Amino acid sequence: MATAPSRRIFTASALASLSSLALASCDSTTDPAPSTPSASGAVPSTNAAADGATATVPIPSGEPLPTATTIVAASESSETGSDAPWVETGSAQAAGDAARLLVTGVRTGTHEDYDRIVVDLSGEGTPGWQAGWVADAGTQGKGDPIQPSGIYILRVFGTGARMPSTAEEIASAQKTLSADLDLPAIASFHYDPTVEAQYQLVLGTSSQSYRIFALSSPTRLVVDVKHP
């Protein structure tokens, strides 16, 4: 019998430093993460029925991207994107011509047969990507080495993104995120903020079968890695 998957959501009630990454747990399958009000307009939360995830907390302007982790149980009754093909080689999809998307959050979780990374986006257009397996990876700009745990390294560039244009957006969107996840397929991940219309995800994995697709209403880029 399939069991309800556990979900990890990067919330807006974050610690200020990645070195103090906090882990909290929640056993309820019905109580979503609490909402955080925003004085200047909250980012739309993710649709639970669309991707099998509980709603992400809106990120208020002026606060950094979340670095704390919350674990909740979530239903997998609706799994939009399951028709996307699983691949083991490179994968690419061009962003829409008018895409200008701002990253507002990154979430992780595990399902019965795969692990998932969701990048929440706001703005206009359809996101694109370029992905492939690499021997090593470095940060955007500086090129500092990224050393994820795991057997393989999957590097994904999300395209169609835009740089923050206000002080509030810079404070909330231009943050690096790294975490050891210890999931069946994704051991760790690293997120690099947007540089020249693209952001970067570096996943340390134990499997080389993955799929990537975009969802809308609200806009998301989804990366699944199949369990070994």
Question: How is this structure best described in words?
Answer:
- This protein has a single domain (6-226), classed as Immunoglobulin-like, CATH 2.60.40.
- Mean pLDDT is 72; it is low at 1-50 and 52-78.
- The longest helix has 7 residues, at 167-173.
- The protein is globular, with a radius of gyration of 16 Å.
- By secondary structure, the protein is mainly beta.
- Helices cover 5% and strands 40% of the residues.
- Strands 2-3-1-5-6-15-14 form a seven-stranded mixed β-sheet, with no helix packed on it.
Write a short abstract of this structure.
5% of the residues lie in helices and 40% in strands. It has helices at 48-51, 167-173; strands spanning 6-10, 23-25, 69-73, 91-93, 100-110, 114-124, 128-134, 137-138, 145-146, 152-159, 177-180, 186-195, 198-205, 210-215, 220-226.
Strand order of the largest sheet: 2-3-1-5-6-15-14
Helix content: under 10%
- Our measurement of the CA-to-CA distance between the termini, rounded to an integer number of angstroms, reads 19 Å
Structural domain count: 1
Largest sheet data: 7 strands, mixed
Kindly estimate the percentage of residues that lie in beta strands according to DSSP. 35-45%
CATH architecture: Sandwich
Q: Could you name the CATH topology?
A: Immunoglobulin-like
Structural class: mainly beta
Count the DSSP helices.
Answer: 2
Low-confidence segments: 1-50, 52-78
- Helix/strand order: EEHEEEEEEEEHEEEEE
Protein name: AMIN-like domain-containing protein
Pfam families: AMIN-like
Domain AMIN-like: 102-227
Keywords: Signal
